[in-house]
Write a structure and sequence with these properties.
By secondary structure, the protein is α/β, with parallel strands linked by helices. Helices cover 17% and strands 38% of the residues.
């Protein structure tokens, strides 16, 4: 009996993985106006901003935020989403690099320590935030380029 439930659990995990993968690849569409692939669906609207020292990210306007550092370090403030959700923040260093972020107090990181961003010129880091209705639970994956 245990083996049956174990196999059902594996099949359920595979089904969930398949659904997730199909959602990741389905929203890409060719935009003839920009001549690029654009992202649709999974994260809603994409917001793109270049920093000026302080940036407010309104998560009600979209859950994918592409941020490029300006000529200084950045302090973020967040406008909370209407409901619990997932958020992706792509951080791009400028041509100089070494820029840092001051995160809002509502962001909780594993071990209670904010991540150290990649500091090279044009480096890219990705931050995933899970909004639980009160706090953002932050996950970090850095140094993509």
């Amino acid at each position: 009996m245990k083996k049956i439930f174990k196999n059902v659990g594996i099949l359920a995990c595979l089904a969930i993985l398949f659904l997730f993968i199909s959602q990741v690849f389905a929203p890409w569409k060719y935009n003839p106006f920009t001549r690029k692939l654009d992202w649709y669906g999974l994260f809603g609207a994409t917001q793109t901003v270049t920093g000026d020292g302080t940036t407010t990210m309104n998560w009600r306007s979209g859950e994918l935020f592409i941020f490029t550092f300006g000529t200084q370090n950045e302090t973020f403030t967040f406008t909370a989403p209407a409901t619990p959700t997932k958020i992706i923040l792509i951080l791009k260093q400028d041509g100089v690099g070494s820029r840092t972020v001051t995160w809002p107090g509502t962001v909780d990181w594993p071990g209670g320590v904010a991540p150290t961003l990649s500091t090279g010129a044009n480096d890219v880091d990705v931050v995933a935030l899970l909004w639980d209705g009160t706090n953002y639970l932050g996950l970090f994956n850095g140094n993509f380029y």
